[in-house]
Amino acid sequence: MAFFPDIQPIKYAGPDSKDPLAFRVYNPDEKVEGKPMKDHLRFAVAYWHTFRGTGGDPFGPGCAVRPWEDGTDSVEMAVKRVDVAFEFMEKLGVPFYCFHDRDVAPEGKNLTETNKNLDTVVRRLADGQKRTGIKLLWGTANLFSNPRFVHGASTSPNADVFAYAAAQLKKALEVTKELGGENYVFWGGREGYTTIWNTNLKRELDHLAKFFHMAVAHKRKIGFTGTFLIEPKPHEPTSHQYDFDCANSLAFLRANGLEKEFKFNVETNHATLAKHTMGHELEYASAHGMLGSIDANRGDPLLGWDTDQFPTDLYTTAHTMLVVLNQGGLAPGGLNFDAKVRRESFEPVDLFHAHVGAMDAFAQGLKIAAAVRKDGVLAEIVKARYASWDTGVGAEIEAGKHDLSSLEAYMLKKGEAERNVSGRQELIENVVNRYLR
After folding, report:
1. Catalytic residue among 40, 49, 101, 103
2. Contact 134, 181 (CB under 8 A)
3. How far is CA 143 from CA 11, 122, 165, 291, in A?
4. CA 100 – CA 94 distance, rounded (Å)
5. What is the pLDDT of residue 240?
6. What was the pLDDT predicted at 200?
7. Do 45 and 355 form a contact (C-beta atoms < 8 A)?
8. What pLDDT does residue 303 have?
9. CA dist list (Å): 335 to 84, 142, 244, 338
10. Residues of the chain with confidence (pLDDT) below 70
11. Cβ-based neighbour number of residue 233 at 10 Å
12. How far is CA 430 from the centre of its chain?
């Protein structure tokens, strides 16, 4: 049975194409810097938004038209939904997908039944992967939706909730390994607080660290070789999330001896909520060798919440891919479209329009980034700005040849610092605009 009978496989048609269901830029086998686009970009579809999203918002229920849905959250419907997902992904031509355990299978009346439901659906997912060649980029556990997690999961004041979350994590890790997942993601969900007055912050942070150490131990026990990724987010649903941003999360990992066990899955909309640009979060993570994967979306600058829109801004996609190219790629991570169509875009075809546009935007960003690197203009501007550190006292400081006393003597002899040079921000912005044509 075809669930998208009117949609043909999406193909590359070139920059002059007016076909909304064709790629204008994304040509998976076209080589950029000696490597096919598909290997640079490693696109993934987010199961939760694309196949479970209904278009609901705080002011009204979902209005998405999904003809394959029967209105139930049964195991039978979950199995059928897997077939929908693989038809969509195969026609779109993406190599990966991502999911939470509760996206793909419903909870039962107890944990035993819940695990059995998940096993049933996982068998169908495995069949879909084998048939299509589509792989699991990463799996994760939903430790935030069920009312049991109202006060958090690993940071809950209820020890039984911690235990339940640990059991759910164990199963999700095992399922991810079973499906050949290349990574496993931890998103803090409700790991944070709404008011500090009823919160033992140190105890909760200690419990979160203990939870991560348990995950690392079980990863080794079962022989899972994928990368552990933390996805920082500052707010929503709690007022203050413990994994606020990359810097905060890295400090937490280092404080608890976990920095060698994790990398980051950086999301654009979460960076915005933290009052950062995506470029800042990516550069920070990459500078510390911690950029593992990317959730590719965007927020609405007029709204202060997590709108999870599909990425279309070439400035963002170009800078993102510049960071990725500069660090030598994302693998085993990728670009996961953690994005949802707008509530008003309720027809099945809109799912294709959204992904096609986002894939083209990142393909264009990749080409722009490659052109920037080839020309070397921006790299030369940055190099020139820091030239004083390449020779003389700058090089000596970086080599550890000075202390405060020796630098005092240096400045007493010299009398005054060399004159600063202009930052040339406007010039740089003009240079960047040359590539966005």
Report:
1. 103
2. no
3. 38, 19, 7, 23
4. 19
5. 95
6. 98
7. yes
8. 86
9. 21, 20, 21, 9
10. none
11. 27
12. 30
How far apart CA 372 and CA 265 sit, in angstroms, is 25
Instruction: Write down how long the chain is.
Output: 437
Name residue, tokens 């990749």.
366
Query: Closest by alpha carbon to 92, among 347, 351, 321?
Result: 351
| Closest among 68, 96, 72 to 84, alpha carbons compared | 68
Is 213 catalytic? The answer is no
Answer yes or no: are the C-beta atoms of 189 and 235 closer than 8 Å: no
Structure confidence at residue 398 (pLDDT):
98
Selected catalytic residue, list 49, 100, 207, 270: 100
Kind and range of the H or E run holding 137:
strand 135-140
Distance (Å, whole) CA 425 – CA 408? 32
Residue 138 has which token pair? 């990463």
Question: How many other CB atoms are found less than 10 A from the CB of residue 348?
Answer: 18
Tokens standing for residue 20: 């909304």
pLDDT of residue 218: 98
- 256-286: per-residue pLDDT in tens? 999 999 999 999 999 999 999 999 999 999 9
Question: How many other C-beta atoms are found inside a 10 Å radius of the C-beta of residue 179?
Answer: 17
CA distances from 437 to 12, 194, 311 (A): 20, 46, 18
Catalytic status, residue 100: yes
